[in-house]
UniProtKB/TrEMBL annotation:
It is found in: Cell membrane. The chain crosses the membrane at residues 51-72, 93-116, 122-142, 180-199, 301-321, 333-359, 366-383, 389-410. It is a multi-pass membrane protein. Keywords: Cell membrane, Membrane, Transmembrane, Transmembrane helix. Belongs to the polysaccharide synthase family. This is Lipopolysaccharide biosynthesis protein. Its main location: membrane. CDD domains: MATE_tuaB_like (cd13127). InterPro entries: Poly_Biosynth_Transport. It comes from Cyanobium gracile UHCC 0281. The keyword Transferase does not apply.
Length: 424
């Protein structure tokens, strides 16, 4: 009987969603291992000021890149089958228009940031990173269609090849004395890897003359999603901007190191698995019982993957940081532990956010993100009065106070809405 029970459990666990999460989570875990090895080398060969400059450059780049997560690809995943081809064709040309504009914005932003922080060393790296924006549009539609078809193995392998190569190159360049460029340059060099994988694994290609018939539909659906992405990016980087502006580049370097050596691993896995949650939910929108079961399965899977990892990492931080990275980073240990612990409620809130997108209530998600971002910003400006450790505590308290409330409220609201519109 125990053997029969085990076989049944194994069969129940073998679902497309769990396989997708497994591929994405496994890929991200391997990426983070390579990133950890690169971080060890970077910590040995880069100065705290190098880390501070890199944090500033990467933060500005992330603010521009957020506009690439504008919901257009999400619309292709969510759209009805008969509309996918037409939407894909127009999404391709719309992406080119948007990404070319974003490249110009990033170049202009480099000069503005240089003036604000009184440091011209950031201009060229920010401009060079912008070149990636001219590569992405060639494969973005294919990437969305691959996700729509549930072939997350391809997405996972593309990420693994691209980011692992990035990490290896970063380590080599750091040892070679490239300083800040050891972090910046590899991200441009590895961008074609992702493009080749996307083009090779999907047959779709643009055809016909460019038209704008469905641009309003694409942008209308993506507007709230872009708003949410903007607010999430602001929250993810606002602490960097505040520490760098009100403390020092060296303090920013310590804080940036603590984040990447700590919560960066768990947050990377969360971000990688969000797309599979959305696809998993969208497949069952017409069946309330199945939809509900899939959602709570997503909560369980994401929680069981992230929470033990966070607890293990935060517990072992005082031991592995001085041994692996060197004693000069001991001051980052308390910040690392606090930031790590702030990640625990995040996977549940991410799943709740994907739930709202799946039922086409992106405006509810946007409203919540506006409220939370305002609360978060106030907390950070209060926390910075106690240096970087105060900022880390503000991050922890904000997430632990607000995200569980959002998860519970959004879940109840979504299922009440579905019960009214799709009675079972």
């Amino acid at each position: 009987m125990p053997i029969t029970w085990f076989k049944r459990k194994l069969r129940d666990a073998d679902s497309p969603f769990l396989r997708n999460v497994g591929w994405l989570g496994g890929s991200t875990a391997m990426i983070r291992i390579s990133r950890l090895l690169a971080t060890i080398i970077l910590a040995r060969f880069l100065t705290k000021e190098d880390y501070g400059l890199a944090a500033l450059v990467m933060t500005i780049n992330e603010f521009v890149l957020v506009f690439t997560r504008n919901g257009i690809g999400t619309k292709l995943i969510q759209a009805d089958s008969e509309h996918v081809e037409g939407l894909s064709r127009e999404a391709y040309w719309l992406n080119w228009l948007l990404f070319t504009g974003l490249f110009c914005v990033q170049v202009l932003t480099a000069f503005v940031v240089s003036w604000i922080y009184q440091d011209q060393r950031v201009i060229v790296p920010i401009c060079v990173l912008g070149l990636v924006l001219l590569i992405i549009p060639m494969g973005l539609v294919q990437a969305s269609l691959i996700q729509r078809e549930g072939r997350f193995k391809i997405i996972a392998l593309a990420q693994l090849a691209q980011v692992s190569t990035d990490n290896i190159l970063s380590a080599i360049l750091a040892i070679s004395g490239f300083g800040l460029w050891a972090i910046v340059l590899p991200k441009v060099l590895v961008a074609p890897i992702w493009l080749v994988v996307m083009l090779k694994n999907h047959h779709w290609r643009p055809h016909g003359k460019p038209t704008a018939t469905h641009w309003r539909e694409l942008m209308g659906f993506g507007g709230p999603i872009l708003g949410v992405e903007l607010l999430q990016t602001l929250r993810s980087n606002l602490d960097y901007l505040i520490v760098g502006r009100f403390l020092s580049l060296e303090a920013l370097g310590v804080y940036y190191f603590a984040f990447n050596a700590g919560a960066g691993i768990s947050l990377g896995i969360m971000n990688a698995t969000k797309a599979s949650v959305l696809s998993h939910l969208c497949e069952a929108r017409d069946n309330l019982a199945d939809f509900r079961a899939r959602y709570f399965q997503s909560l369980k899977v994401m929680g069981s993957a992230i929470v033990p990892l966070v607890l293990l990492q935060s517990t072992l931080a005082p031991f592995y940081v001085p041994i692996i990275f060197g004693s000069r980073w001991d001051s980052a240990i308390p910040i690392l532990i606090i930031i790590c612990l702030s990640a625990i409620p995040r996977p549940f809130a991410d799943a709740a956010s994907q739930l709202l997108i799946a039922i086409n209530k992106t405006e509810w998600d946007l409203t919540w993100n506006i409220i939370f971002t305002c609360f978060f910003a106030v907390a950070l400006f209060i926390g910075v009065q106690w240096q970087a450790i105060g900022v880390a505590i503000a991050v922890l308290l904000s997430h632990w106070l607000c995200l569980p409330l959002f998860t519970i409220y959004a879940s109840r609201l979504a299922f009440r809405h579905l019960a009214r519109t799709q009675p079972q």
